Amino acid sequence: MTNTLHRQGSLESLKGDYVIFATTAKGITHEGSGPKLQEFIRICFKYHPVNMGSGELGNVHQDDMDIDKLIATQKDGSRVEAVFTDLDALQKVIEELIRADLGLSINISGLLEEVQQCCRKAGLERHSVEHSLGFWGAKDRLPEREILEFNTMCGHGMVSFNFIRKMLEYVKLRRLTPKKAARIMAKCCECGAFNPVRAEMLLEKVRQGKK
Amino acid sequence: MEIDKKKCVGCGNCHAVCTMGVIYLDEDGKSVVNQDECVECFTCYRVCRNEGYNPWFVRALRRILSFFKLGYLAEVDVCPTGALNPPQLEWPRSIRAQFSDPTTTHPGTGIRGRGTEEIKTNDVTGRLRRGEIGLIVEIGRPGTGAFFRDIEKVAVALAKLKPHFESKNPVTQLMVNPETAKLREDILNEKVLSAIIEAKIELERIPEFLHALEQIQKEIDTVISVGMASKCLPDGTIPHEEWGRKAGYTLSPNGKTNIGLGRPLFKENEL
């Protein structure tokens, strides 16, 4: 989940894509963090995230995973995250996390201005920020923009270019609905950073032949 | 990853799922993995669930359908016969999984994924302090992968400018000497999905480092995702933003924000 940073897409599309995650620091907040991480999941779950998961255990779109199992299996130092599509829900999560005072490091990936406004409304000023400077190097090896929009929704790059192409093709041929194809792609992203709702919207555009 | 040819029915599902696109159909109609290019991310094994069919049954079914000019179309996220076989990895090949499989822990940092906390815990660690910039250079991402020989080229180029390579970072821990950034010889031909070089520099040196990256990017046959991070000023201003733009670079409208809820909060003034 290091690089939810490099998510690609139009501003309009990114407006529906916010990943919030809890992290612990070895030797500082790691020890005894299991119950706090469980509480983090409970708080996020109340506001209907479109995905949740943990690198250690998988995400809620996988066949053998659900929210209860995700909560029950948290242990010290796990990393958990949730994806939201609207700022109102994100704001409520932030406010509740402030009240809960879990002491975990909380990061949000998304449009920086929007996230800052959210923090300010909740009475917080942001602590640290990371920007992407884009892709460098052998860029001729990269596929077209629409493939990258899906691929970069998984911070670890688990949704392959070829699989995205296959899903696009299956949606165009109506072998899969955009919803089903988006859910299958979400399964690949172990940590749960993939946004299946945004993916579904992008796939719907493809189905309708829109660019 | 290995594929059990006795079980494989050549449905091709794992080919598309493979993050590196290195599974292909052999002349015998069964899938095989290009072991040089496989990064041991185990995505194929996790995503393609084992349907548990008898290979003989599936092959017979395919032949019958083929006779009637009909295709066999398995669901896209299954391995009909459970032919994918994750091997026990020995050093140095095991380093591929450490950097590519998000469920594997980096032994040196105890962290999964790419193995570094970077700014995610900056509120409690003080990893980046006022006037410092974190340069995050992820080689191989998106979706192309990288050999350590390429990762070393980039690290060596940056090392000439004498940054502080983050010690709690798995790539730094593979350096024989952080002053030269030369990596261990035995890993140079190992390939990973991506690896992050993490360097701490002074604010005013941003243009110099980005220029060095501009130069070295031409010498490697993979892509790099570049990021820049810093601790915000009390009013929320991002110190690196202006320097990045002055140096002629476009910063993304989106990014990662540490909202500062970690406790105990790191206080530089008390040091």
SSE layout and pairing:
The complex is a heterodimer of chains A (211) and B (271).
Chain A: H1 11-14, E1 18-23, H2 34-46, E2 51-54, E3 58-59, H3 67-72, E4 80-84, H4 87-100, E5 105-111, H5 112-121, E6 128-137, H6 145-151, H7 161-172, H8 178-188, H9 196-207
Antiparallel strand pairs in A: 1-4, 1-5, 2-3, 2-4
Chain B: E1 2-3, H1 13-17, E2 23-25, E3 31-33, H2 43-47, E4 49-50, H3 55-67, E5 78-79, E6 84-85, H4 94-100, H5 122-125, E7 132-139, E8 146-147, H6 148-159, E9 164-165, H7 170-173, E10 175-177, E11 182-183, E12 191-192, E13 195-202, H8 206-216, E14 223-231, H9 239-246, E15 254-258
Parallel strand pairs in B: 4-5
Antiparallel strand pairs in B: 1-6, 2-3, 7-13, 7-14, 8-12, 9-13, 10-11
Model description:
The complex is a heterodimer of chains A (211) and B (271). With 211 residues, chain A is an alpha+beta fold. In chain A, 42% of the residues lie in helices and 16% in strands. Chain A is built from nine helices and six strands, in the order αβαββαβαβαβαααα. Chain A has helices at 11-14, 34-46, 67-72, 87-100, 112-121, 145-151, 161-172, 178-188, 196-207; strands spanning 18-23, 51-54, 58-59, 80-84, 105-111, 128-137. Chain A is globular, with a radius of gyration of 17 Å. Chain B is α+β, with helices and mostly antiparallel strands. Chain B has two domains: 2-85, Alpha-Beta Plaits; 106-270, no CATH class. In chain B, 25% of the residues lie in helices and 20% in strands. Chain B contains nine helices and 15 strands. Chain B has a four-stranded antiparallel sheet. The longest helix of chain B has 13 residues, at 55-67. The N and C termini of chain B lie far apart (49 Å). The chains are: A alpha+beta (211), B alpha+beta (271). Chains A and B meet through helix 4, strand 5, helix 5, strand 6 and helix 7 of A and helix 1, helix 2, helix 5, strand 7 and helix 8 of B. Strand 6 (128-137) of chain A pairs antiparallel with strand 15 of chain B, so a sheet runs across the interface.
